Structures are given as C-alpha cells and as structure tokens.
C-alpha cells in the first residue's frame, strides 16, 4: 500500500472524520436546497417575538419573520462567504509562504517580516476598520477577511516549504535542472496535500467566525439574510431584554456545529499525518525508535552502522544456538539475571525481544551489541521498566534476587537509579533543558535520600569532580556545555546514588573518539573503585571487545552469541556474529587510527585491574 | 539579551507598519473616503471641527509624503486628532475612558483562561485517555466553536436575564457614585463576571488543547524517560520536567493567538454595553467617527504588540536557551 492510500484509509476510518464530514455535508445540503423549502425568510409572517410553536417551529423574530426560515436561508451566504475566504486565504498564503520558503535568502527575510507583522496585528479590529470604508455586502466581507487573515496560512506554508526544500528529492529535482515552477507544482505541492486541506479548513473556520462577527456589528448588508445578520437583528430587537432566546440560539448552534465539524475534520487530518497524536487506540502505535547516532568523529569505521546480513547467509529463522534459547536456572551470585525475556509492541508482528536470557555479575562489564532494531535498547529499557504501556513483557528479570517486573510502584521508584541507573545516547535530549546541572543532580539525590539541599549540592559538586568536571559547571544549563561535558554530566547523574549497575545505552556513540575514550577510561576507574557493574549497549562491536568482560550479540530480538570479549572472535557460532566481526577492518592488521584499536585486538584495556 | 532586543526591534517594525497601515487605509479605499467625509461634514460642522478632522488625517496641503510625515509627527506626539462624535474631545481622551475597562476585563479573563486551560491540558495529557482527557477536549472544542459574543449573549440570557444573578450591562452601577472603595470594587467585579465568563468559556479549549499537544510532545522525549528512570516522584516529573518544558511552545502559541482573542473579546463588550475599546470602536463605526475609529485601531494594535512583547519576555525568563 502506498503512503497516500494508507493515509486516506486511516482518514476514512477515523470517527472524527466521519462526524465532521457528515455534519458539513448536511449543512451544505441545507444551504443549497433549504431556501427552496422554507419559503421567503424576509416575509413578515406573524406577530414579533412569538415563542416556538407548531406553526413556527423556532418562533418569530422581533420583526415577525420566521426564525427557522432565516436560519436555513442564512446558511447559504454564510457558508459561501466562509468557503470563498477559505479558498482565497489558502491560495494567497500558499503562494506567499511557498515563495518565501522556496526562494529563501533575502526574499524570505522580507516576506517573513511581512507575514509576522500581519500575524501580530489583531485581525478583527483591522477587518472592522476596513469594512467600515467599504460598501456593505458579501463581496466586501470576502476582501476584508482575506486581507486580515492571510498571514497565518502563509506562515504555515512557509515552514512546510522550508522543511521540504531541504529534502533530497527536492534537491535532486533542482539539481537536475527542473524549473522552479515545475519543482513547486510537481514536487512540492503534492507533498503538501494534507497541509493544504487542513489550512483550508482552519481558515474557513476563522472566516465563518469573523464573518458572523462583522455582520453582528452591522458591517454586513442588514437587508440580506445570513447567520451574522440574524444575530445582528436579534441583538437590535432586544432579544436579550425580552427573553426571546429562540431568535439567537438556533443560529449560534449552527455556527458552532459547522465550526466544530470542520475542526474535527482538521484533527482527523492531523492525526493521519502525525500518528503520535492518535496513539492510545489499538493500531498505529509508535514503537520506540533505536537511533543510530551520526558520527561526530571523522573515523567512520568506529561508528558506522552494522551491515545487514544477507538472508541467504542465515539459517531460515536465524535461530540462535540452543543453549542460548533454553532458559537456564539463574546463575548463582548474578547481580542481574534475565530469563526468557520477550517484549512485544502491540500492533507489531515480530517481538522486539524474543526469549533473551543472560546474567551480569557484580563488577562485570557486559557488552550488548546489535544493529538498529535488534532490540538492544528495548533490553536496557526493560531492565529499568521504562517500556511504554503498549509493550507486553513476559519472562523474568531478577536484580539482586528481587523480581523487577513485580515491584510495586514505590519499590520500583526506589529501585530506579539507586540500584540501576542509565546514561542515554544524547544528553542534550535527555537532560532537562530548563534546569541547571545542579538541580538535575540534586533532585535525584533528594528523591532517594533524606538529605538537606545544601548537602545534596555538595554531593553534586563531588560527582562533577568524579567525572572530571569543574564544580563551577553546577549552575550551567545543559545547552551551554559541550557534547562531551553534557555526557559527563549524564554520567555524574547516573553515579549520584552509587548504583550497583549502570546501563550505557549508546552513551558514547555521538562523541568524538578522544572524548569517548576519556569517558570510558573514567568509567573503568570508577568501576574499579566503586565495584559497579556496567551494561554497555552499542552497535560498535570493536569498542565492546575492547572494553568489556563479556559480549552478547543481539540479532532481530534474539541473543545469538555470548562469549568473553577476548574469545568472541574465536567462538562465535552465529553467522551474523561472524559476519559482524569480519566487517570491521580494525579487527585485522589494519592501520591504527583510534586509541583503542590495539586494545581491540588484545582485549585488555579497561579490564579490571 | 540579544534575543529580547531582536524581538523589541520586530515590534518596533510592526508598530511602524500598523501606523503606516492606519495612514494608508483611508487613502487607498475606493472613492477617497477621507475627502468624501470632509465634504460630507462641510456645513454641518464648525470650521474648527472640520480643521480637526483634516488634522486627524494629516490632510495638510502638499504631497502624500508630506502628509505622511505630518501624520507620523502627530502620532509621535500622541496626537490622534479630535473625535467627531464626542467633539471637541481629543481621540486620546476618549480612548482613555475605555482603555482601563478593556485592559482589566480582557487581561483578567485571558490570564484566568490561559492558566486554567494550561492546567487542564497538563492533567489531560498526563492521564492520557483518562476520563478528563476523553470528555473535556471535545466539549471545550465545541464551546470554542461558538462566536465569543454569542456565548456572551447566552450567559447574559441565562445568568442575567433569567436568574438575575448578575447585572445585564455596563461596567458599574452609576448609583454607587461616592460609595466606599470596597463596595465599588465589588460592584465592578460583579459587572465583569459575565463578560469574563464568556471569554473564558470561548478560549479555554484552545489553551487546553495547545498545552495538551505540547505536553504529549514533551512526554515522548528522552528527558522524561530519564526523569522516570531517575525514580523521581510522578508529581515532580509531571510539573518540573513535562509541564515546565511544554509551557514554552504553549506560550508561543498564546502570543500568536493573542490578536485573535483580543478581537473576539472586544465583541463581547458590545453585548454587555461594556464601555471598553471594543464598544467604543463599534460606536465610532456606527457614528462614522473616523478619527476615533482609526485611533482605536492603532491603540488596540499597539496594545496587542505590547502584550506580545510581554509574552516574549516571559518566555525568555522561562527558557534559559533564549537567554544565552
């Protein structure tokens, strides 16, 4: 199924879309057919301000006209004006926004200022002033509202054009010499279909509301019958002071129904384009994405993603060796013991983790290797019970003998970070951007230990020193630190409570080689002094071989090999592992670039002393 | 600080643009309305009034450019001409009578609405698919689809006309002139309840949905994952991590919606004959009091710009990244 037809399928399956479309269609029919059915809305048919009765279902106005006839007939001009403004504003906004976003440079700078100025100038007062000068009527209202309202859609289109312009297919079209108009109409606009639709709907809602407002003020043509003039006359004929609620309630409900229905349509479109908004229902749940960091260092053999193993090299279902699949009794003395761990994300056919069993011993550095999507981050999250609600976890995780999956909320809270802590891949994303380094260390300390704030702050200073940062960084915000310093802060937070196990989830991947090495050296020292265990998760197998006591290889959710780091290359049995090992030139007699290359061969550096 | 300065520069440009727009609109309209207006009032107005009218538009002899600079000079001195309907009161004096009412009513209503909507958005996103999250967003969206002034009519009908809980119109009771400060304040508050309720009802859903969306985006980030991993209390994660970060994008959309909301709340003043800027604006339009109308548009626009700058300053104060 193509992306478009898949989107359309989801759109039509949405209840919001169904409700919105049905209501809008009903009003469209009413606007077209209704006036022929209800008779002349301006005829004086009865006594003024007659309450609803069988002869006049919605009563009469202060002039003695039929409210039902006026409400039905009012739909025609109101909706026509609303949709016309919607079309105009969308077109003008798309034209200006795409021009700005596509051309960039000075044209964009000038247009952006213009758009932003018109955005901050309040639209309705501007429309009122303009309408005061123009002859009253639908035409004037269309002009006035288009002039006052174009900026919002221009802004939205510009943002989208900027995003798309940098995509490869647009760049390719430009490089291949396609004309600007062709690029815009053939490449750009089709990719904005949902934006065009939602911009049109949103501006139509704005237009109907503003139109009704202007006409309510008497700036429309008081002789015509529209929803706005209905309200104008209701107010003029003192509906409120005589208690004639039926003269304004029906029209207001119609305005709201149309607006609400259109809004529902636009939500349905948003949910299709951005499935995360719709999450919570069964299908289409997002699965946590394992990211492969872009290398910041220059040596790509260190950080390049693992090669995909051609299927023909693998046994039919890539079954790991039998002894890795059968749950064993938990090894005595293990700190962390995982038995038959299986994680399924609802809506996904294949489990993210499939019967993984492994143990980590006190003081051990265990490396977990695997490509993107192999389930290695899911494993780390499972140990800390950080998986989302829609993940189904079976199997057993024992930490220090305790059943982690069965911990009640308070014990779980105490277990987290005091027993097991984590350093995530990008500290820029993981640290709270609006809190200082000190606050983020202090809050974890205070959440677990009965200390005073000043004692916790002292501890925070000591922790920074431990990871090689000056105590002056305590009051810095994360964005002011370098990438390496941020990752050190993340490590300091992870060590704040003297945990027994630290999980490094691609924690050094985004760093350059020198910083990476410094950080890992520091961790190795701390491991020696504090006696902590480390679960080191990365796709970088040579790094694991250099730094770990034992290494496990995850492939498609299954643990396919586990061996002491020094022996893995000898004892690896799974074709994936063997292929992985041969994929790294640094494992052979290649020229040495990074600091840990010789170590990668000997497997000695970073071992316990 | 450079970010704050850049924003200030932008609002200066916007202010200049709206002054220029104000100068240009009467001149660009079909059939030169200014000249027509002057011609129409000739004979009905005293020569001073006519001179005041020309003065308000900068209709001095000379080219359009000369007129433009004359106009700019007038605005810079705070001279917006004389009102026709309230002749010979200067436009600025007339605006002065309404400004406080609008600022008080609209300001309080907006702050209440934004605060309440934001809190509801935090809770709804935190208890995703809970009862609050399932019922309130659609209900408030539906309320938000009504025109503000229509909700004003409805609350006026229900709580003013039918139940007699609150006064039907105006901002205070003229009979209370000379009463104690406390009873005057209570009287003003009683008059403000219904118009403020209308604005709150109409806008609450917007703020709630915007905060809910921002919260959901933040809840998916690694910062929340790490905060959970740290074993912090759910309350602290919800407020210090999720809500604190989600407030920033929500404030930005608050700033962007400000002009729209101010326009809507001006209309509610009409329903209650509340003597603020919106009421004055409509009176000026109906009386063809063009100097007052233009002056009001300028004043409303400049106030919205100032409010936007205030919102920017709050964002800067809340977000260390913009302070660098």
How does this structure look, described?
The complex is a heterodimer of chains A (609) and B (324). With 609 residues, chain A is an alpha/beta fold. Chain A is built from 25 helices and 10 strands. In chain A, helix 3 (67-103) packs parallel to helix 6 (138-165) and helix 18 packs across helix 19. The model of chain A is unreliable at 279-318 and 587-609 (pLDDT under 50). Chain B is mainly alpha-helical and 324 residues long. Chain B has 13 helices and no strands. The longest helix of chain B is centred in the middle third of the chain and has 39 residues, at 181-219. Chain B is globular, with a radius of gyration of 24 Å. Classes of the chains: A alpha/beta (609), B mainly alpha (324). Chains A and B meet through helix 4, helix 5, helix 9, helix 10 and helix 11 of A and helix 1, helix 6, helix 7, helix 9 and helix 10 of B.
Q: Distance N terminus to C terminus of chain A? A: 57 Å
Categorize the overall geometry of chain B: globular
Helix content estimate of chain B: over 70%
Biggest sheet of chain A, in brief?
6 strands, mixed
- Fraction of residues in β-strands of chain A: 5-15%
Strand line-up across the major sheet of chain A: 6-7-8-3-9-10
Helix content of chain A: 40-55%
């Amino acid at each position: 199924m193509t992306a478009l037809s898949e989107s359309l399928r989801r759109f039509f399956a949405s209840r919001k879309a169904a409700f919105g479309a049905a209501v809008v269609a009903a009003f469209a029919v009413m606007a077209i057919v209704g006036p022929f059915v209800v008779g002349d809305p301006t005829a004086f048919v009865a006594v003024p301000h007659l309450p609803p009765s069988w002869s006049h279902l919605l009563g009469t106005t202060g002039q003695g006209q039929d409210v039902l006839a006026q409400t039905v007939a009012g739909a025609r001009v109101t909706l026509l004006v609303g949709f016309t403004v919607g079309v105009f504003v969308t077109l003008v906004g798309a034209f200006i926004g795409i021009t700005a976003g596509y051309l960039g440079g000075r044209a964009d700078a000038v247009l952006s200022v213009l758009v932003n100025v018109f955005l901050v100038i309040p639209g309705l007062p501007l429309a009122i002033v303009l309408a005061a000068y123009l002859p009253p009527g639908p035409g004037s209202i269309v002009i006035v509202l288009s002039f006052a309202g174009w900026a919002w859609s221009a802004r939205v289109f510009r943002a989208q054009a900027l995003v798309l312009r940098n995509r490869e297919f647009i760049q390719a079209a430009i490089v291949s010499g396609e004309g600007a108009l062709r690029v815009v109409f053939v490449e750009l606009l089709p990719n904005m279909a949902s934006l065009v639709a939602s911009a049109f709907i949103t501006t139509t809602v704005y237009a109907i509301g503003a139109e009704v407002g202007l006409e309510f003020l008497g700036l429309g043509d008081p002789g015509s019958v529209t929803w706005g003039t209905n309200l104008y006359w209701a107010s003029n004929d003192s509906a409120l002071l005589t208690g004639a609620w039926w003269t304004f309630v029906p029209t207001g409900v119609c305005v709201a129904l149309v607006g609400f229905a259109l809004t529902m349509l636009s939500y349905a479109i948003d949910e299709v384009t951005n499935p995360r908004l719709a999450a919570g229902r069964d299908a289409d749940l997002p699965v946590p994405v394992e990211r492969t960091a872009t290398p910041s260092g220059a040596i790509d053999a260190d950080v390049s993603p693992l090669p995909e193993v051609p299927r023909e090299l693998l046994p039919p279902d890539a079954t790991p060796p039998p002894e890795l699949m059968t749950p064993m009794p938990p090894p005595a003395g293990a700190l962390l013991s995982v038995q038959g761990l299986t994680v399924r994300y609802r809506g996904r056919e294949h489990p993210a983790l499939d019967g993984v069993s492994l143990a980590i011993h006190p003081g051990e550095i265990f490396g977990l290797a695997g490509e993107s999507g192999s389930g290695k981050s899911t494993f780390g999250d499972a140990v800390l019970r950080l998986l989302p609600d829609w993940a189904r976890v079976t199997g057993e995780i024992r930490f220090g003998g305790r059943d982690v999956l069965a911990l009640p909320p308070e014990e779980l809270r105490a277990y987290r970070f005091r027993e097991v802590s984590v350093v995530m891949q990008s500290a820029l994303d993981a640290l709270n951007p609006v809190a200082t380094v000190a606050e983020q260390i202090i809050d974890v300390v205070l959440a677990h230990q009965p200390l005073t704030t000043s004692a916790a702050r002292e501890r925070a200073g000591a922790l920074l020193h431990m990871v090689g940062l000056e105590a002056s960084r305590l009051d810095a915000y994360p964005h002011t630190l370098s990438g390496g310093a941020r990752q050190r802060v993340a490590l300091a937070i992870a060590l704040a409570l003297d945990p027994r196990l630290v999980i490094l989830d691609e924690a050094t991947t985004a760093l350059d080689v020198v910083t990476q090495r410094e950080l890992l050296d520091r961790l190795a020292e701390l491991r020696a002094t504090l006696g902590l265990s480390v679960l080191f998760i990365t796709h970088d197998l040579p790094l694991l071989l250099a730094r770990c006591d034992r290494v496990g290889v995850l492939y498609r959710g299954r643990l396919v090999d586990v061996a002491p780091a020094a022996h893995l290359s000898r004892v690896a049995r799974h074709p994936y592992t063997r292929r992985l090992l041969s994929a790294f030139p640094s494992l052979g007699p290649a020229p040495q670039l990074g600091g840990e290359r010789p170590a990668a061969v000997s497997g000695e550096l970073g071992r316990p002393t | 600080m450079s970010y704050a300065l850049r924003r200030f520069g932008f609002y200066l440009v916007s202010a200049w643009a709206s002054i220029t727009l104000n100068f240009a609109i009467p001149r660009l309209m079909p059939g030169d309305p200014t000249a027509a207006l002057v011609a129409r009032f000739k004979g009905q107005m005293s020569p001073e009034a006519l001179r005041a009218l020309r003065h308000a538009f900068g209709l001095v002899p000379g080219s359009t450019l000369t007129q433009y600079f004359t106009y700019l000079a007038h605005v810079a001195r705070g001279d917006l001409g004389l009102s026709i309907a309230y002749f010979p009161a200067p436009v600025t004096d007339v605006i002065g009578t309404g400004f406080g009412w609008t600022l008080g009513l609209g300001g309080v209503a907006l702050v209440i609405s934004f605060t309440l909507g934001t809190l509801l958005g935090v809770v709804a996103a935190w208890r995703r698919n809970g009862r609050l999250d399932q019922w309130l967003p659609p209900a408030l969206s539906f309320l938000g689809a009504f025109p503000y002034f229509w909700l004003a009519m409805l609350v006026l009908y229900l709580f003013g006309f039918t139940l007699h809980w609150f006064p039907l119109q105006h901002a205070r009771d003229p009979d209370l002139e000379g009463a104690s400060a406390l009873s005057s304040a209570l009287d003003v508050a009683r008059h403000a309840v219904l118009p403020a309720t209308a604005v709150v009802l109409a806008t609450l859903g917007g703020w709630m949905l915007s905060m809910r969306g921002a919260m959901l985006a933040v809840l998916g980030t690694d910062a929340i994952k790490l905060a959970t991993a740290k074993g912090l209390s759910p309350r602290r994660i919800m407020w210090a991590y999720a809500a604190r970060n989600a407030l920033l994008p929500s404030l930005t959309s608050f700033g962007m919606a400000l002009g729209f909301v101010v326009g809507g709340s001006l209309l509610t003043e009409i329903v209650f004959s509340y003597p603020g800027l919106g009421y004055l604006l409509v009176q000026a339009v109906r009386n063809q009091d063009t100097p007052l109308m233009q002056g009001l548009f300028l004043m409303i626009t400049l106030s919205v710009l100032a409010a936007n700058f205030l919102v920017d300053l709050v964002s800067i104060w809340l977000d260390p990244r913009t302070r660098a």
